[in-house]
Amino acid sequence: MKFRKKVLLICIVASCLPIITLGGMWYYQIQDSLVARENENLSEALNQSILNIDYKLNNYVNIINQIVWNDEIKNGLTAEYNNNFEMYKFYNDTLAPLLVTPPTLQTDIDSITIYTDNQMNPYGQLLRPLTDINQNSWFDSIMDSNQPNLIASSDDETFKLIYKIFDESRTFNNIVQMEINYQQFFASMPSLFEEDYGVVIFDNDKKPVYSYETFSDTNLAGQFPSSKLVEDKDSLESDFVLQQAELPSYGWTVYLYRPTDIISAATLPMRITVVLVIFLSIAIMAVSIYLLAKVVVRPLEKLSKNMEKIEKGDLTVSVFNSGTDEIGNLIKQFGNMVNKLNDMIDQVYKSKIAQQEYEMKALQAQINPHFFYNSLSLINSKAIMAEQEDISQMAQHLSTFYRTTLNKGRSIVEVEKELENVISYINIQQLMHSNSFDVYYELDKSVYHYIMLNLLLQPLVENAINHGIDHKESSDRGKLIIKLKKIENTLEFSVIDNGAGIDPTKLQSILTTKTEGYGVRNVHNRVQLYYGSSYGLTYESEMGHYTKVTLVIPIVHGEEQ
C-alpha cells in the first residue's frame, strides 16, 4: 500500500473511531435514558397505586375488625334463644346497625354477611347459615386462619374480605364476609397512564387477581404473556419495560409494564438525526483528509523517485525543495547526505571497510576459547600428577566459570547453567580465601529448565564477598547464602551475607550510581531493559549485620525464547 493511501486510511480510521464511538454512545444513550425515565415513571405510578390499594384494604380490615371483635356480636351468635323475639331483638338492635352502616357510607362495599352454624333464623343477606359457603374451595383455609383473608378472582370479577369470628367457647363457627365492588376497588388501575400500558396483580398463590391493558396499537393487545411473570420474568425484559411492587401485608404482587417498541418509536426521529450527522461528519472528514494526504505526500513521492535513482548507483541526483517544514528539511538533508556520500565513497568508506575487516580478524584470533580451555586442562593434569589438589580444583573451577561465562557467545542460558557459573566462582573465591567463609544453597531445582540472561548473579556474589564478608568486623565466620525460589510467574534469587552491611545513604543510590566494571547498576539496568521496569534488584541491609540483594525476573520457557 502506498504511503498516501496509508496516511489516508490511518487518518480516516483514527478520526472515525471517536466520531462513531461518541455517536454510538449518544445513539444508545438516548434509548437508555428514555427507558430509565420510563422505569422511574412506572415505579412512581405503581407505588402510588400500591399506597391506594393498601389504604383501602386497611380501611376494610378496620371495619371488619369492629365486627369480629365486637362482644355483643360474639354473644349474640353463640347464644341459645328461647323465642324468636329475643333473636329479632339481637338482629334489630346489634347485628343490623353494624352490618348495614359500612355499605351505606362507602359505596365500594357491596355488602357484609355473617355465616354461622348456630341454629338461627336467616336474616336477609346479613345472617346466613354456614352451609351456604362451606362448599367453597377456600373454606377450610379460612377456618384454620386467624387473620383476615382476601379472596379475589379476575375471572368472575369478585373480591371478598373474609374473617373468622373467634369464639372462646368454640361452640359455633362464625365467619364474616365483606363483598367489595371489584371495579371500584381497582378503579385507579385504568387511569395510571393515558394509553400503552398494562397491569397484572397476583395473589400469594400466584393466581391472577386483576389484569388490565390498553394499547393504541391493536396488534399489541393480548401480546403480553402474563403467565411468564411467575415462570420466567427475565425473558420479558427485552420487549417490555417492567416494574414490580409487593403488597407485603397480604402477599400480593403487582406488575406494571409498557412495550419498549413504544419508547423506541418516540426516539426514532432523534436517532435518525444522530445517524445522519455521523455519516455527514465522516464524509466531510474523508474529503478533508484526502486533500491533506495529497499535499503532504507529494514531496515525499518526489524524494522516493530520487532515492530509487541513488539505489541504482546514480549519485549525481540533485534534490531541491523550497519548503521549510519537516519534509522540506528532510529533502535538504537528503541532498547533503548524497554529497557527503560521494566524498565518503571516494576518500574514506572503502579504506575504513578494509581496516575493520583486518581488525575483526585479529580480534577473532585473540579470542580463542579452545586454547584457553586446553591450557586449563593441561594445568589440571599437571596438578593431579603433582598431587596438588588445590591447583587442580582451581583449574576445574576456572574452566567451568569461563565456559558458562562465555556461553558460546550467547547471552541467554538456562537457570542451571547460570547457577553453575556462580557456584564455580564461589568455589574459586573459597580457595582464594582459604575457606574462611561458609556457603549455603537453598535452590528450587524444579526451575532449573527455565532460561534467563547470563551473568546476572556473579556480580552480586562478588560484591557480597569483596564488600561484605571481607570487611566484616565481628569474629564469627563469614556466611554466604544463595536462594532460588519460584513465586507465581517469577523467579526470585537472593544473595545474603553476614558482612559489614551498607551505609543507609549509600543504599538509597546503589542502583543509580555508576561504578567501574560490571556492577549492580549494570545488572539492574540490563534486567529492566530486557524484562521490563517491574523487574530488577532490591536491597536491604543493616550496618554490621547483613546485606540482602534480591533479583526478580519473569519465568521464561525455552520455547518462548
UniProtKB/TrEMBL annotation:
Domain (HAMP): residue spans on this chain: 294-346
CDD domains: HAMP
Transmembrane residue ranges: 7-28, 272-297
Keyword tags: ATP-binding, Cell membrane, Kinase, Membrane, Nucleotide-binding, Phosphoprotein, Transferase, Transmembrane, Transmembrane helix, Two-component regulatory system
Enzyme class: transferase
Reaction catalysed by this enzyme: ATP + protein L-histidine = ADP + protein N-phospho-L-histidine
Membrane topology: Multi-pass membrane protein
PROSITE patterns: HAMP, HIS_KIN
Highest taxon, organism lineage: Bacteria
Keyword GTP-binding set for record: no
SUPFAM superfamilies: ATPase domain of HSP90 chaperone/DNA topoisomerase II/histidine kinase, HAMP domain-like
Compartments (UniProt record): Cell membrane
UniProt protein name: histidine kinase
